[in-house]
Amino acid sequence: MRKDLLALTPLYGSWIQTGSPAAAEILANAGFRWLAVDMEHTETSLKEFTNIARSMEKYGVFPMVRASENNTVEIRKYLDCGAKGIIVPMVNSAEEAKKAVAACKYPPEGVRGFAFVRANDWGDSFDDYVKRANCETVVIVMVETKAAVENIDEILTVDGVDGVFIGPYDLSGSYGIPGQTGHKTVKDAMQKVLAACKRHKKAAGQHIVTPTQENVSEAISSGFTFLALGMDTVFVSEGAKAALNMAEQK
Ligand code: 3PY
Ligand code: MG
């Protein structure tokens, strides 16, 4: 997955808000390449995440976490429990990006602690895992503030940052226009981030919560490659509403 991400291959994933292993199985079975469990804005616990990772493994989907913050201890636990990629929110500077990368990598590249854990079959594949982990673990930083946009070149220069994921809602808040994700200021900021990703040959990502042929084609043709399409809650909600509307119109 990391090789494909850095080769700027379009990689479609989705998002899990419910903390449900069943939802993860359904999305994995649909064929998404990667799935991210949102630990920033949900009630999902580490134990629930671990069971989600277990459920994903059957399908070979790449398990990711959107961490609740740029926290070394928290990130270590996700990786130890089965995450293979981390999306780190609110990374606003090169220094913060270095901290995020260090949390994800074993020494000498980082500060990840060693242990016999789920990720290495409780120690059975420890040596092999330690050899592979640093080059396989994906690190995506979220750009969702004005400061991050201003510092985007320095952030993308940090070794080990594989790409960025734009948070348009927090970005709009940071520019003083909360919720106005279609505002020119937010759009311009996103273009600036996208252009920087192209310059630095790093993946540009965004979440298309309600995917349509138009918005997905537009994202791909403008250069985004790491795309989250929909999320479990939205798929259930849209499907439920569509069924009920259809029935009631009869
Ligand atoms: C944002 O828009 O701020 C997000 O974090 C979306 O995931
Ligand atoms: Mg956000």
What does this structure look like?
The protein is an alpha/beta fold. 48% of the residues lie in helices and 16% in strands. The chain contains twelve helices and eight strands. It has helices at residues 2-6, 21-30, 46-57, 72-81, 94-104, 126-136, 146-150, 152-157, 168-174, 184-200, 213-222, 232-248; strands spanning 11-16, 34-38, 62-66, 85-88, 138-143, 163-166, 203-208, 226-229. It has an eight-stranded parallel β-barrel with strand order 1-2-3-4-5-6-7-8, surrounded by six helices. Helix 2 (21-30) packs parallel to helix 3 and helix 4 runs parallel beside helix 5 (94-104). Residues 144, 167-170, 207 line the site of 3-hydroxypyruvic acid.
What radius of gyration results from the CA coordinates?
18 Å
Query: What sequence of helices (H) and strands (E) makes up the elements?
Result: HEHEHEHEHHEHHEHHEHEH
CATH architecture: Alpha-Beta Barrel
Distance between the termini: 46 Å
The CATH topology label is TIM Barrel
**Main sheet strand line-up:** 1-2-3-4-5-6-7-8
CATH H-level superfamily: Phosphoenolpyruvate-binding domains
Reported for the largest beta sheet, the result is: 8 strands, parallel, barrel
Name the shape in a single word. globular
Number of domains: 1
Ranges with pLDDT <50 over ≥5 residues?
A: none
Beta fraction: 15-25%
Keywords:
single chain; 250 residues; alpha/beta; TIM Barrel; eight-stranded parallel barrel; 12 helices; 16% strand; globular; binds 3-hydroxypyruvic acid; binds magnesium ion
